[in-house]
Please model this.
Amino acid sequence: MSYIIHKADGTAITIPDNVLDTSFYAGSVPPGVGVGNILVGRNTVDYGAAIAQNIVQMTENFAKSTPPTDSIALQGQLWFNKTSSSTGELYVRTIDASTGGLANWSKILTESTGGDLSVSGDLNVGGSITAGTPIAATSGGTGFGSYTIGDILYASSSTTLSKLPVGSVGQVLTVSGGLPAWSNAAASGVLSFNTRTGAVTLTSGDVTTALGYTPVNKAGDTMTGSLILNADPVTALGAATKQYVDNAITANPTVPVGTVIFVPATTAPTGFLKLNGALISRTTYANLWTFAQASGNVAASEGVWLSGQFSPGDGSTTFRIPDARGYFIRSWADNSPSYDVGRAIGSIQYDAFQGHWHNSYTQGYGAGAGGGYAGIQSGSQTVALPQIVKEPVTDGVNGAPRTSTETRPINIPFLACIKY
Model:
């Protein structure tokens, strides 16, 4: 008499008498080949061998160190991967394929003896996870199971998070021993703050306790340390940084670049160079080089440079400044029609006398000794006179005349310098 086996999906398999039924599997599977369980009918010959085969295959497929053969290919099949005599992993066949081995199986997460869940790959959770105890900070948690509104979390050590409860009204957050802490504001401190002008009105006390440092907070206090401003001034009374002032002075110097001064010293003052014809850097003295290029007084080349000019130097990195040593300075005529006509700016003009004549006296001729003048004609002839114009001598009033290799006025030498 046949019997019925009911399956979990609601269907049933009827097993007739005297057969080894293989209709549960795809295709026709001969009995005894070890590729699956055989459904044994009543009164079947050699049914004992079939049942024994089933037991062996179930044992082999469920607990061994290699996956069951893919020739069975039963999706949903369970396999316990025995990794040692005391450990193992549970797998389920998810892919019904005749090849692929371990790739056809998925590991089922299991709970170890200690209660911890061991995951070697990614853990994707669609819902929520409830932990029996708070997850420690070293494991990606915080170590806390609950919070109060306003709590602040901070690292109290390299492996521990701590909670700082919300402070009270009027308290300020400070740092104590390297950790955050709430502190009571000073009993007397900020009284009011003008949001339009930024002015802070303070009482007679201070806010040192609240701030943790001593600010300038009332009349008579002295500031220590640096005052840092975050913007340049935009009004006449706005505060300015040193850098702002330095930049302003550089951009708008009190003495314009290129100005020549004379100082009673042997060294040039700060911001000036000796006007000594030196070859200098176009980069270091960029402002002076800019002035030189706009001056209209740069020699065509280093080879034709004159002492009163700038020169182009090496043509790329240097230039030469004028050399005023030993010269008197004369105002440039600038195309004047009356004086110093035709002079170029920076040109040299050597010493000279205005054109003139000298009086000359004769000896014992004409109107008497000492009378008459050189070049006097006698009748129709010019009388030749002895050469008597000689070295200068005192006139008896102004002292002995001074002579030298040059014609010059009385003078004092000062050092000529140029602003760079």
Q: What stands out?
A: Residues 23-35, 364-374 have pLDDT under 50 and may be disordered. Residues 140 and 277 are 74 Å apart (CA to CA).
